[in-house]
């Protein structure tokens, strides 16, 4: 799906939910728990973040959206909200802050060019993923993916065009094409943030102070110890549809060397996948359920992208 002059909108997204952290100590509490620099969550930018165990494994990955001072919305896959809430409750007792699952907030995916959206609103975020604007009745957040945004509000997106809808599968495919995976509960405590390319997406600040799991995350980065990475794979139609948690197999040795994190139907047939796969100098042929899958180039380089640079870029274009 390419950028278009129409506005395609999903129904409320099944792939996102919101955990709110609010109160006088909300920023200080979150600063000590996640990979993001909380000062970056401001009235123009919503950074990516990961919350980790002391061993550096991700409990969940999120985007941190701050709609107002002392209030933060952690946007993540709905299956992992309760997992992260339970994890954070172990630490929040020492802070003047509260945790609330916000079931009243509506998130809808939008696929549209800026030109098409100006017919509905003059308030548009900058073109960098993470940029957002207040539209009065809700918020427009630009996310990874070509011409992709998310509407956030307590009422449905007002920009819907009935003749140009966007299915949940379409949205998931756009996210896979962008190379961004949102952990589900079954994948919690399994991966370092770098294994889902989180530092390449600007989701790790290596310039902030301590947070839970920081020592392991930093050591893996500076010592180059990350041997598994997120890959975009394409699969043909199979008798058994691939699922999150299924194995990616080295077809030559018949060994499991990867795990699927995201699945969406292809544009016309087959499947689009994101999987964490062990990396080799010369990658072997890969298969899922016995069928060969092919690797697709990611739209970003596998290298560190400092979120500080993203924030500075937003400030320059504001």
| Number of E strands | 16
N-to-C span:
29 Å
CATH class of the domain at 8-180 and 307-317: Alpha Beta
**Radius of gyration over C-alpha positions, nearest whole angstrom:** 19 Å
pLDDT < 50 stretches: none
Q: Supply the helix-strand structural class.
A: alpha+beta
Write down the secondary-structure element order. EEHEEEHEEHEEEHHEEEEEEH
CATH architecture of the domain at 8-180 and 307-317: 2-Layer Sandwich
Query: Count of helical segments?
Result: 6
Shape: globular
How is the largest sheet built, in terms of strand order? 11-14-13-12-15-16
Q: Could you name the CATH topology of the domain at 8-180 and 307-317?
A: Gyrase A, domain 2
Strand content: 25-35%
The percentage helix is: 10-25%
User: For this structure, what is the CATH homologous superfamily of the domain at 8-180 and 307-317?
Assistant: Probable tRNA modification gtpase trme, domain 1
Largest sheet: 6 strands, antiparallel, barrel
Mean pLDDT: 93
Any key phrases for this structure?
Gyrase A, domain 2, Glycine cleavage T protein, 16 strands, six-stranded antiparallel beta barrel, alpha+beta, 318 residues, YgfZ/GcvT, five-stranded antiparallel β-sheet, globular, YgfZ/GCV_T_CS
Question: Could you characterize what this model shows?
Answer:
This is Glycine cleavage T protein. With 318 residues, this protein is α+β, with helices and mostly antiparallel strands. The chain has a domain at 8-180 and 307-317: 2-Layer Sandwich (Gyrase A, domain 2), CATH 3.30.1360. The chain is built from six helices and 16 strands. It has helices at residues 26-31, 81-92, 114-117, 168-177, 214-222, 307-317; strands at residues 8-12, 17-22, 48-52, 58-68, 71-76, 98-101, 106-111, 132-134, 139-142, 148-153, 228-235, 247-250, 255-265, 271-278, 286-288, 291-296. The strands form three sheets. A six-stranded antiparallel barrel has the order 11-14-13-12-15-16. Strands 1-7-10-9-8 form a five-stranded antiparallel sheet, covered by helices on one side.
């Amino acid at each position: 799906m390419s950028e278009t002059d129409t506005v395609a909108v999903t129904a409320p997204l099944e792939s996102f939910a919101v955990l709110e952290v609010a109160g006088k100590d909300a920023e200080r509490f979150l600063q000590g728990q996640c990979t993001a620099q909380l000062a970056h969550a401001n009235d123009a930018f919503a950074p990516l973040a990961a919350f980790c165990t002391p061993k550096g494994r991700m409990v969940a990955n999120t985007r941190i959206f701050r709609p107002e001072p002392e209030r933060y919305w952690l946007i993540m896959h709905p299956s992992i909200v309760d997992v992260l809430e339970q994890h954070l409750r172990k630490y929040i007792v020492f802070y003047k802050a509260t945790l609330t699952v916000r079931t009243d907030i509506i998130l809808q995916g939008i696929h549209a060019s800026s030109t098409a959206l100006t017919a509905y609103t003059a308030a548009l975020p900058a073109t960098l993923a993470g940029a957002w604007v207040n539209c009065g009745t809700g918020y427009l957040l630009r996310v990874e993916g070509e011409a992709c945004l998310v509407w956030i509000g307590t009422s449905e997106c007002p920009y819907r065009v009935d003749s140009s809808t966007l299915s949940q599968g379409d949205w998931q495919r756009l996210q896979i094409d962008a190379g961004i995976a949102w952990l589900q509960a079954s994948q919690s405590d399994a991966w370092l943030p770098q294994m889902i390319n989180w530092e390449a997406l600007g989701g790790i600040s290596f310039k902030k102070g301590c947070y839970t799991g920081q020592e392991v995350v930093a050591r893996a980065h500076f010592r180059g110890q990350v041997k598994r990475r997120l890959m975009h794979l394409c699969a043909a139609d199979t008798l058994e549809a691939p699922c999150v948690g299924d194995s990616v197999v080295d077809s030559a040795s018949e060994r499991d060397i990867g795990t699927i994190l995201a699945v969406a139907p292809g544009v016309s047939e087959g499947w689009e996948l994101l999987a964490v796969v062990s990396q080799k100098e010369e990658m072997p042929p890969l298969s899922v359920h016995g069928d060969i899958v092919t690797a697709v180039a990611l739209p970003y380089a596998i290298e560190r992208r400092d979120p500080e640079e993203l924030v500075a870029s937003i400030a320059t274009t504001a």
